[in-house]
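Batch queue: ligand-bound targets. Current item pairs a single chain with NAP. No template structures supplied; prediction is de novo from sequence plus SMILES. Inputs echoed for audit trail.
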Amino acid sequence: MELSLKDKTILITGGTSQLGRAFVRKAVRQGARVFFTYLKAAKTAQELERAGAQGFSFDLADVKAIDAFAVMFKEKVEFLDILIHNAALTADSFIEKMLESEWDNVMRVNLKAPFYLTQKLLPLLLRKTPSKIFTLVSRAGLSGLAGAANYAASKGGLIAMTKTLAKELGRKKILVNAVNPGFMRSSMTANVPEEILRRNLEESPLKTFSDPDEVADFLLFLSSDQMRQVTGQVFHFESRPF
Ligand SMILES: NC(=O)c1ccc[n+]([C@@H]2O[C@H](COP(=O)([O-])OP(=O)(O)OC[C@H]3O[C@@H](n4cnc5c(N)ncnc54)[C@H](OP(=O)(O)O)[C@@H]3O)[C@@H](O)[C@H]2O)c1
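Prediction returned. Tokens below.
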């Protein structure tokens, strides 16, 4: 099956992430016009630019920075086919020790930024419909994750927001879906202790971690014209039972 992505305009946050960079490269190869955001991974951003995408560095925790980006982006593109909220961070701690700043920063980047950026870029998404919004969520948002109340709450909130926006924007022909990529090896999981990694693998029926390449391919399919009637869903790569 040939995916129809040619000439689609796509913006993905966290394009330098493990998943983001796989998606950016593949989407460019499929003929899409791809823009991405990042925070500090300048070297990876340059590689993605050499591959044909365009990157913008700013802090998603800062609404003024989002405002400035949105103004600039609206001058740059006439419409947006696909908006992917992929950037996220963790600041793990048990409740006794979690700092208010750790709670706030995770909520700002993982939950408030997807709300705020969607609101600011909605005119572009409405200009040429159907268009699509994707959020990257996590098992933590459904079943909780000890030591990460901030991250779990942010992803749970993001799932609720995804389903709500699907209801609000469906009649305007904007499809909104979430993807839980499952456990991937990335900067986010680099510090997970070996024992927890082993337990994750044992509990997984497939005895594997997720492959960012496969998740990127799935996102490409969802972004393509082949997917036209699915909205309000959460797709799980997670092979462990909930
Ligand atoms: N890895 C997993 O096991 C797993 C499991 C379930 C869900 N997920 C979700 O899947 C998505 C991708 O995960 P990943 O592991 O591929 O991510 P990752 O490699 O840890 O990358 C995180 C991305 O977010 C960007 N970012 C972080 N803080 C930012 C800020 N304040 N402002 C702007 N950008 C910021 C980073 O930019 P820089 O590179 O410039 O720092 C980077 O592009 C995330 O939404 C994550 O929650 C991941």
